[in-house]
Amino acid sequence: MAAAILDGKAMSEDLRSGIARRVEKLKEAGIRPGLAVILVGDDPASEIYVRNKGKGCEEVGILSETVRLPAETTQEALEKEIDRLNRDDRIHGILVQLPLPGHLDEEAALARILPEKDVDGFHMINAGRMMSGVKGVVACTPKGALHMIKTTGLDLSGKEAVVIGRSNIVGKPMAMLLLRENCTVTICHSRTKNLAEHTRRADILVAAVGKAGFVTPDMVKPGAIVIDVGINRVDGKVLGDVDFDGVKEVAGWITPVPGGVGKMTITMLLDNTVEAAERKRELAARG
Ligand code: NDP
Predict the structure, then answer these.
(1) Cis preceding-peptide flag for 142 (omega within 30 of 0)
(2) Active-site residue list
(3) Which of 33, 172, 186, 246 is the most interior residue, by most CB within 10 Å?
(4) What is the pLDDT along the chain (287 residues), one digit of tens a residue?
(5) Beta strand segments in 212-258, E
(6) Pocket, ligand 1, Cβ cutoff 6 A
(7) Which domains does the chain have, with CATH numbers?
């Protein structure tokens, strides 16, 4: 039997109506959550992401500000802009669209954002909180992917989870979230030997590789949950890391690309922004 589709679009619509209700509640208290996105240069893929983020904000009632800086912006000018947004009370979340042009220091830029305004969850403080199991901002893509996994209704405790990819923004936090759910987690990467031997054990397989069609049906355990994080542009088409047509015949559940994890990532960004505004309100109420 073909796999059930984990539909990121439908899940997002559902979640976004809940987020919109939380925004309304904040507005009643005189607070409108605000998200600022800094875009340096004119990378076409980044332009699309930034536009979609703006649209998402509009949909749920979040104030959105896009700061466009020229490709030749200096580190100093970028950090000055971040500092300005750190001080701006209307802004609860700041996101620096990655990748930055090569001459800029991404790590330093991300570290400049106040941890409480880091809605991407990339700041060292938030990454550290996540590692230690302390409440903090959770990176949007793994957070969205975990939500999708949970909608299967399966008990995740004790399940074998395999994550392909160990980046700081997807692979590692994804593995940590699955560990928190009491999965037995394996992280695979480009030096992993006999990759398919690992992936075939997986009850939950997350692909975050950046190579179109990398996961083939022979690499998948029958009935597994397969989460495709990949976004690869090939001949004008957007393809995932999973050979969708082949793998859907083996897996129990699968996410499509587009319309899967990517959609959820933006929804989780909206969620994190509203959460940041709620947290700020809570702290103010406590004095
Ligand atoms: P990175 O390039 O930072 O990481 C890719 C990972 O894949 C690395 O850990 C790398 O291993 C591993 N890898 C590469 N080749 C192989 C191989 N042959 N076998 C096993 N592992 C391999 O990418 P990201 O984590 O940033 O992104 C991954 C994908 O997810 C991309 O397609 C990206 O566009 C997409 N993405 C999608 C998002 C969404 O919202 N859906 C958000 C963010 C990213 P090593 O560490 O050894 O080099």
Answers:
(1) no
(2) 53, 97, 120
(3) 33
(4) 799 999 999 999 999 999 999 999 999 999 999 999 999 999 988 999 999 999 999 999 999 999 999 999 999 999 999 999 999 999 999 999 999 999 999 999 999 999 999 999 999 999 999 999 999 999 999 999 999 999 999 999 999 999 999 999 999 999 999 999 999 999 999 999 999 999 999 999 999 999 999 999 999 999 999 999 999 999 999 999 999 999 999 999 999 999 999 999 999 999 999 999 999 999 999 87
(5) 225-228, 232-234, 237-239, 253-254
(6) 141, 164-167, 169-171, 188-192, 195, 208-210, 229-232, 261-262, 265
(7) 30-114 (3.40.50.10860), 140-262 (3.40.50.720)
